[in-house]
């Protein structure tokens, strides 16, 4: 949430989010490992939270060489959040 705030609103999140920051810091400190989907996301975590933590990047997706597609279906898929 804090990295979203910085990207969308610009700058530090307001003081009212201090409890949120502390809760995430506690979670990071207690974790045996942290996984992020990209180096950019990992960098954002490290920038926003002061607790040192062990982390790795595991990208989203699959190796396209492991899967081959069959005939195309006449369908459309949309997704959003």
UniProtKB/TrEMBL annotation:
Domain Glycosyltransferase subfamily 4-like N-terminal, first and last residues per copy: 19-66
Single GO term (MF): glycosyltransferase activity
Protein name: CAZy families GT4 protein
InterPro entries per UniProt: Glyco_trans_4-like_N
